[in-house]
């Protein structure tokens, strides 16, 4: 009955199966396969293979899994602040940059960059007794990674700074009457331009001397360079390069009454003292945290003030080699420390947490110090400097404002708009005071130097020159010569403006 219900296809299939079975039986395939299998088992030999032991020091394989597959919420904090100093506030959960190991705790000799710079290969001498001199700095190997087009104002004939004054209320560049003759005569000459080191310059300082023009600068690779602008030697260009640190230089201190002693701080957690005569770098302080800033009171050379870790301020007694005081002043790293020249007990700090604070060291308690004045910005504050008279404080923030805090008790704060967003390849802008309280100098993204008047609450002038081929971001005013201004770029160049 079952076969009668089969379809034509099923009957055909059963017939094929039956025919195949008869064919297999006629060829005796099953019996031959069994015999072959038995012979194979008798002839098979077994070998004991010892497993290959992997070295214990081998790095374990880490399987990368996304937060989504692990059932965890997404990380919305973004990149850490150390990835780029121009990004906004750093998440508190990100640990500070740790110094590299092994840590060198003793003095180091003249350590120069081993990279080839300007076609001159800097080879380290065994005795470290020879200065490392750079060439004419015309190599393109260390050009700034930011490629910029030439400004249309300088495509033709050369124009000096004194004829390029930009009025906020007028379009274009116009001639206006300026109050200070020295400011109107500022010019940038070719002999005052040099690429003194590779990489981004973080700090630039003039030597406090009226008898010579000497510049010290530190870059992101741990190099410190010195440029004697007045060098007349035909064989040397007056540029000397050292490498006492392994990370970005965060501060350089030049002693006014002992210029051969130079302090330097670095993100690697080291503070070193250079003896320029012996060309040795003595270790002053070693920290497991990052040192972000370095400063000193004008009348006190025995103590160093430096920003350490996430918002900490440490006071280091050089005589005892110990920390005398320390506070937690901010929620994030301290970018600059400035002392009032008229009252060295008044100190200003600024931080990536978006604030700048004024403190009185005489009334600061150890546990919860109270500020005299708090200046708030919407984004990270990269500099806060007192004016020469001590009556005003200038702050520079990523919220595109330059803040001016003044008054008898620093109760008045006004904001002046300025584009301060430099991106990740250029050091952040830091506006500095000139030689009095009249002007603030700050770089701009068009390869110029903006001059801001706090009294007029606006930019009153822009210094530009065809000799300036990159964006100046860090500045210093010569303490002994009015009108001499040094600007440094992310390509290792230094420009020195001076009156004609």
Automatic annotation (TrEMBL):
WD repeats lie at residues 327-362. It comes from the Eukaryota. GO terms for cellular component: nucleus. One of its GO terms (molecular function) is DNA binding. Keywords: DNA damage, DNA-binding, Repeat, WD repeat. PANTHER family: WD REPEAT-CONTAINING PROTEIN 76. SUPFAM superfamilies: WD40 repeat-like (SSF50978). InterPro entries: WD40/YVTN_repeat-like_dom_sf, WD40_repeat_CS, WD40_repeat_dom_sf, WD40_rpt, WD_repeat_DNA-damage-binding. Specifically binds 5-hydroxymethylcytosine (5hmC), suggesting that it acts as a specific reader of 5hmC. Residues 36-55, 68-113 are annotated as: Disordered. Belongs to the WD repeat DDB2/WDR76 family. This is WD repeat-containing protein 76. One of its GO terms (biological process) is regulation of DNA damage checkpoint. It comes from Hibiscus syriacus (Rose of Sharon). Gene3D superfamilies: YVTN repeat-like/Quinoprotein amine dehydrogenase. Residues 42-54 have a biased composition (Basic residues).
């Amino acid at each position: 009955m079952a076969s009668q219900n089969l379809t034509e296809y099923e009957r055909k299939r059963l017939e094929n199966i039956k025919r195949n079975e008869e064919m297999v039986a006629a060829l005796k395939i099953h019996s031959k396969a069994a015999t072959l299998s038995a012979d194979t088992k008798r002839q098979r030999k077994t070998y004991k293979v010892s497993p290959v032991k992997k070295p214990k020091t081998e790095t374990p394989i880490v399987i990368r899994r996304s937060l989504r597959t692990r059932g965890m919420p997404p990380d919305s904090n973004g990149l850490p602040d150390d990835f780029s100093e121009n990004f906004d506030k750093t998440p508190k959960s990100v640990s500070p940059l740790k110094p590299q190991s092994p840590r060198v705790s003793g003095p180091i000799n003249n350590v120069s960059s081993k990279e080839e710079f300007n076609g001159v290969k800097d080879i380290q001498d065994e005795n470290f007794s020879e200065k490392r001199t750079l060439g004419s700095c015309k190599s393109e190997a260390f050009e700034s990674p930011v490629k910029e087009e030439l400004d249309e104002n300088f495509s033709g004939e050369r124009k000096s700074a004194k004829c390029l004054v930009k009025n906020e209320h007028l379009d274009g560049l116009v001639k206006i009457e300026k109050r200070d003759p020295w400011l109107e005569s500022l010019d940038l000459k070719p002999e005052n331009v040099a690429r003194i080191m590779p990489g981004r310059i973080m700090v630039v300082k003039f030597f406090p001397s009226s008898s010579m023009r000497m510049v010290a600068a530190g870059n992101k690779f741990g190099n410190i360079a010195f440029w004697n602008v007045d060098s007349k030697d035909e064989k040397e260009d007056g540029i000397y390069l050292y490498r006492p640190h392994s990370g970005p230089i965060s501060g350089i201190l030049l002693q006014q009454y002992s210029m051969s002693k130079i302090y330097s701080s670095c993100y690697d957690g080291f503070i070193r003292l250079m003896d320029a005569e012996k060309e040795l770098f003595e270790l002053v302080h070693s920290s497991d945290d990052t040192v972000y800033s370095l400063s000193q009171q004008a009348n006190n050379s025995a103590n160093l003030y430096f920003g350490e870790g996430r918002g900490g301020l440490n006071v280091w007694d050089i005589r005892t080699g110990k920390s005398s005081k320390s506070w937690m002043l901010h929620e994030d790293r301290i970018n600059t420390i400035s002392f009032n020249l008229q009252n060295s007990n008044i100190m200003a700090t600024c931080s990536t947490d978006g604030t700048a604070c004024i403190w009185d060291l005489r009334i600061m308690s150890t546990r919860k110090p109270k500020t005299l004045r708090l200046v708030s910005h919407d984004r990270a504050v990269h500099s806060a400097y007192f004016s020469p008279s001590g009556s005003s404080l200038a702050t520079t923030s990523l919220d595109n404002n330059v803040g001016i805090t003044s008054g008898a008790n620093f109760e008045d704060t006004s904001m002046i708009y300025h584009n301060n967003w430099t991106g990740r390849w250029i050091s952040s802008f830091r506006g500095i005071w000139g030689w009095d309280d009249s002007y603030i100098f700050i770089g701009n993204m068009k390869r110029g130097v903006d001059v801001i008047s706090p009294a007029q609450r606006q930019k009153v002038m822009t210094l530009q020159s065809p000799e300036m081929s990159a964006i100046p971001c860090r500045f210093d005013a010569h303490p002994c010569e009015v009108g001499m201004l040094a600007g440094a770029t992310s390509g290792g160049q230094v420009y020195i403006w001076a009156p004609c």
